[in-house]
Automatic annotation (TrEMBL):
Top-level taxon: Eukaryota
Protein name: Thaumatin-like protein
PANTHER family: PATHOGENESIS-RELATED PROTEIN 5-LIKE (PTHR31013:SF12), THAUMATIN FAMILY PROTEIN-RELATED (PTHR31013)
Gene source species: Aleuroglyphus ovatus
Database matches in CDD domains: TLP-PA (cd09218)
Gene3D superfamilies for this protein: Thaumatin (2.60.110.10)
Residues spanning the membrane: none
Pfam family, one: Thaumatin
Length: 243
């Protein structure tokens, strides 16, 4: 049984907290996929933690901030607990998203700000674990958002703490809940969810700060990265907070 368990866990993830403060990463599996590390843990400043996931894994990773002893977090909270146990993070939150071993063995990964933003985040394939196919901009390169969007978040999108500081920036969909900004109803297709229908192009604020991250639901062409394993070595990824 132990041999089977080791063989199934093929992809390494390294979570690196490069922030000058503690964070609490959250992990969420897609349906019928494994949940790593019970879904969450604390990670001290400048520390790393590694874990492995099985072939075909899909899910997301995010950072929670300013969590208290009871597990309640100022951003990214998953229900007042340190181990999220299958609960997602309350937006606004920056997300690292993965679908591994897809069509022809290809991995897909991206950083999404569709649910808003709380911290800078980047995804980097681990040296020696991948091979490029085509060599384009989105082939095994770094995905992410290095900018501090909180510093210039519009007031109508800002999530503030008790001290009045902006700790996260909402998406327009979260802030206004309209079909136009949420890409639903008559706007639920790429050709109908367009900036011409937005009173203010809030997604452009996110895109200008972080051009390689998803800014709204149909922002696929400039946000989705792909990668392939290096022969018998499975792809591994670093998820870096405050890159």
């Amino acid at each position: 049984m132990a041999i089977l368990a080791v063989a199934a866990a093929d992809h390494e993830f390294r979570l690196w907290n490069n922030c000058p403060f503690q964070i609490w990463p959250g992990l969420l599996n897609n349906p019928n996929k494994a949940l790593p590390l019970n879904g969450g843990f604390a990670l001290d400043k400048y520390q790393t933690k590694s874990f492995r996931v099985p072939d075909g894994w899909a899910g997301r990773v995010w950072a929670r901030t300013n969590c208290n002893g009871a597990g309640h977090c100022e951003t990214g909270d998953c229900g007042n607990k340190i181990e999220c146990h299958g609960a997602g993070g309350v937006p606004p939150v920056s997300l690292a998203e993965f679908t591994l071993d897809g069509w022809q063995g290809q991995d897909y990964y991206d950083v999404s700000l569709v649910d808003g933003y709380n911290l800078p985040i980047a995804i980097l394939p681990i040296d020696g674990t991948f091979r490029k196919v085509g060599g384009g901009q989105y082939d095994c390169n770094q995905a992410g958002c290095k900018s501090d969007i909180n510093a210039h978040c519009p007031a109508e999108l800002a999530l503030k703490n008790g001290g009045g500081a902006t700790v996260a920036c909402k998406s327009a969909c979260m802030a206004f809940n309209t079909d136009e900004y949420c890409c639903r109803g008559a706007h639920n297709r790429p050709e109908t969810c367009k900036s011409r229908d937005w009173k203010v192009n809030y997604p452009a604020i996110f895109k200008q700060s972080c051009p390689d991250a998803y800014s709204y639901a149909y922002d696929d062409t400039s946000s989705t990265f792909t990668c392939h394993s290096n022969g018998g070595i499975k792809t591994g990824y670093v998820i870096k907070f405050c890159p």
